[in-house]
Amino acid sequence: MLRLQKHLSLRLQEHLLPLHRSASLIQLSLQRSLLSTGSATYSSPGHFAADDYLVSTCGLTREQAANAAKCISHWKSSSNADAVLSFLTGPALGLSNAEIALLVAKDPRVLSCSVDNTLRARLARFRSHGFSAAQISEFVRVAPCFFRKFNIDVKLGFWMPFLGSPDRFLRLVKRNFYLLSSDLDKVVKPNIQLLQECGLSIQEIGSLCVANPRLLTSKPDRIRAVLVRAGEMGVPRKTLLFRHAVTAVAGLCPETFASKLKMMANILGCSEAEVARMVQKNPLVLRRSMETIQRACAPGQRIDAKRS
User: What is the pTM of this model?
Assistant: First the structure.
């Protein structure tokens, strides 16, 4: 009887062993298949939909997203971008959705920045030059292309002592953002020196350039020509009128300057020399458009204008 039980047990083990091995192989195959599928999904180029993220999360248009996606399509996830957006919209800057969209559209690489090593550090550098949180936010709105790559210490180290305040700096940037990229040693400082040689103080140059910041960012040869033309108007240097003359001719090419004098002479019925003397007393009249000058010199006002 005992021999019979052992014989049956051995036969049963021989019968079940192939089934157990088969089940183990199936289980191992399934595990390998799942791991392979997961790996393929993670490394798939399309698993992070950059365009969709830029549109749905950052507020870009489809066209903007198509251009910006080139900078972030290699990402594996949006975790860093999420942290950047959280910081930009948080209390440190408080950017609105529209401002975020503008910033990311102009500089999508900002989403790749380290919050601590780049963004938070840049805000600290702005504050060290006297910028408030609101003024930093204004800078981002005015010059989104420069927020990430603007050389804060070099540029603001020059502009803040020269202009005196972040508000004045921002006013100039709004009118001419080339202020941020112009070479200080080859362009800006030589232009300031030329204006100083005409008897203008640093404070007067700062005030003059708020109205016409291109006096600082144009090539020095052009500014030298502007100063020559202002001097040819016969306005004494070191006077308010000379500053007005510089402002007037800075925005005009020589041809436009001459055509305005000729047009005023025709309307007023006097010589160009007489018009030149009138302009000498009020150089800023040249800043007005042709249409405005024509209305100001209408026939009914010819006598008054001529007497002036």
Answer: 0.71
Cα separation, 294 vs 150, in Å, equals: 44
What is the rounded CA–CA span in Å between residue 212 and residue 36?
64
Reported confidence tier of residue 36, pLDDT bands at 50, 70, 90: very low
Q: How far is CA 160 from CA 131, 141, 149, in A?
A: 10, 19, 18
Contacts for 82 with CB less than 8 Å, ≥ 6 apart = 57
C-beta of residue 118 within 8 angstroms of C-beta of residue 152: no
pLDDT at site 88: 95
Confidence of residue 297 (pLDDT cuts 50, 70, 90): low
d(CA 67, CA 282): 50
Measured CA to CA, the distance from residue 155 to residue 132 in angstroms comes to: 17
Pairwise CA distance, residues 189 & 197, whole Å: 12
Report angle CA 119, 123, 124 to the nearest 5 degrees.
Answer: 115
- Which of 155, 56, 54 lies closest to 106 in space, CA to CA? 54
